[in-house]
Design brief:
By secondary structure, the protein is an alpha+beta fold. The chain has five helices and eleven strands, in the order E-H-E-E-E-E-E-H-E-E-H-E-H-E-E-H.
Length: 188
């Protein structure tokens, strides 16, 4: 994740870049983010957080995040993206029951009575869930006391314009310009 800070306080900017990176990493969102631009103007106060995701959030199936193969009694699943492990397990339990899902290791599962084609189509995460989680992570990274926010989303770019004061039209316009410069659409 490439982080660019725009602000007058060099020490504060460096510390904030590390804080943002730590929060995104702790919440397992850093892997989804390609590029970040943070505008920090505490004196105004104005904060513009714009991120470019590696890909536009889309629904994920078990096949998107694991390797699946047919076994004599069902299907073997090897989870390749750890962050989806809990949802895969929950989905398999809901569909086949706990007794039919044998967990060999944390990432290797045998599903008795399942068909590979069924697992290939099982959706475990909607794109909206990812977007909502990323938004929550961005808000968590913002300074305390932020009351007013405007969120701009288009494609794989999310920009949040925030202030403690009244959100002025010129602040929103600055955020819109940042959003476009990061690859977002002008019509947000």
């Amino acid at each position: 994740m490439d982080i660019e800070i725009i602000g007058e306080d060099q020490y504060g900017s460096e510390a904030y870049a590390k804080l943002f990176d730590d929060i995104m990493s702790d919440l397992d969102k850093a892997v989804l983010i390609d590029r970040v631009q943070l505008t920090l103007e505490p004196a105004t106060p104005l904060f513009i957080f714009s991120i470019v995701l590696r890909a536009e959030p889309a629904p994920k199936s078990i096949a998107d995040v694991s390797n699946i193969r047919t076994d004599p009694n069902g299907v073997h699943v090897t989870i390749t993206q750890e962050r989806y492990a809990p949802e895969i397990l929950r989905s398999l339990w809901n569909r086949y029951g706990r007794k039919a899902v044998y967990q060999q290791t944390r990432f290797d599962l045998d599903v008795e009575g399942a068909k590979e084609s069924e697992l290939n189509e099982m959706i475990i995460s909607s794109g909206e869930d990812d977007r909502r989680e990323i938004m929550a992570a961005i808000w968590r990274a913002m300074p305390e006391g932020i009351k007013n926010r405007k969120t701009l989303i288009s494609g794989n770019v999310i920009t949040v314009v925030a202030t403690e004061e009244i959100l002025q039209p010129e602040m929103i316009e600055r955020g819109r310009k940042v959003h476009v410069s990061m690859g977002g659409s002008e019509d947000v």
